[in-house]
Design a protein that fits this description.
The protein is α/β, with parallel strands linked by helices and about 290 residues long. It is built from eleven helices and nine strands. Helix 5 crosses helix 6. The protein is globular, with a radius of gyration of 18 Å.
Length: about 290
């Protein structure tokens, strides 16, 4: 089985619609794909309706969190999307996205970059506007070569010149809320130093003590040494280890299925979940 547990669609900051994403996942030879848009489950219904036969969809979301003053992402799988407390927190994060993005556009303008809100809104379309859309605007303007080049201290990285903070869930509270909604939590790209400051091993241990289920190990932002270190930490802390593409369509260079999760780990994730269940494809309309 080929299992990719971290992807994004136009419901947040990917370039494939949810329907296109599941079709592309099937064409890429995946057996299981998780749709984990940022702080939203809005793309799930479309993905399920288009799900090809032979492909299973894992529903989820990538939650914006903070711990020890550091921003981090928590992938939540198979939770009840209507559980009211977690739903309210996701809505708070989403509602903060537009004023935050406008603030970053203003800061860029102050830095002499001729970016406009209209340009960013056009790029975001119907998705939840975020830093990747602003990064793409910088690419269009020739300010940086690619989206990754915008996530530096010079521009949009945490604490960067144009960075604006947003509402984020306390990471320990996020674990509690996802558990209460029947879901499973995996810390996304936990040692991706190119994205900014990362949590200490002591903080990771606190997350594990709070009920964190796993860590994303095989990811494009982790080199081999980092993956080996993470596997050792996961073993010490009793955490599951996953692999995922973090696919964003054409917005990033990673491909669907570039990194995958072991079937036994996937089986354990589904066994732990009680809020929702994987959806087998019945042959969506092409």
């Amino acid at each position: 089985m080929r299992i990719d547990l971290h992807t994004h669609s136009t419901a947040s900051d990917g370039t494939d619609s949810p329907a296109e994403l599941v079709r592309n996942a099937a064409e890429a030879g995946l057996d299981v794909v998780a749709l984990t848009d940022h702080d939203t489950t809005r793309g799930h219904a479309e993905a399920i309706a288009a799900l090809p036969a032979g492909l299973t969809l894992v529903t989820g979301a990538e939650l914006s969190c903070r711990m020890d003053g550091i921003g981090l992402h928590m992938v939540a799988y198979l939770f009840d999307p209507e559980e009211p407390t977690l739903l309210a927190e996701r809505e708070l994060v989403r509602d903060d996205r537009v004023p935050r993005a406008r603030g970053m556009v203003s800061r860029l303008q102050e830095l002499g970059v001729p970016v406009t809100w209209e340009q960013v809104a056009r790029i975001a379309g119907d998705g939840s506007v975020g830093r990747p859309h602003i990064a793409e605007a910088l690419v269009e303007l020739g300010v940086v070569r690619d989206v990754s080049g915008a996530f530096t201290p010079e521009w949009l990285a945490d604490g960067g010149r144009a960075y604006v903070e947003k509402h984020e869930l306390d990471a320990l509270e996020a674990i509690r809320l996802v558990k209460a909604a029947g879901g499973v939590t995996v810390f996304a790209h936990p040692l991706a130093v190119k994205r900014g400051q990362v949590l200490s091993e002591a903080s990771l241990a606190r997350l594990a003590d709070a009920g964190l289920d796993g860590v994303e190990v095989d990811h494009m932002d982790h080199d081999e040494a980092t993956r080996a270190r993470l596997r050792g930490l996961a073993k010490e802390l009793g955490l599951l280890t996953t692999g995922s593409s973090d696919y964003h369509g054409s917005r990033k260079t990673c491909r669907l299925g570039e990194y995958t999760t072991d079937p036994e780990i996937y089986g354990e994730i589904t066994r732990r979940a009680a809020g929702a269940f994987p959806v087998p494809g019945a042959g969506g309309a092409f």
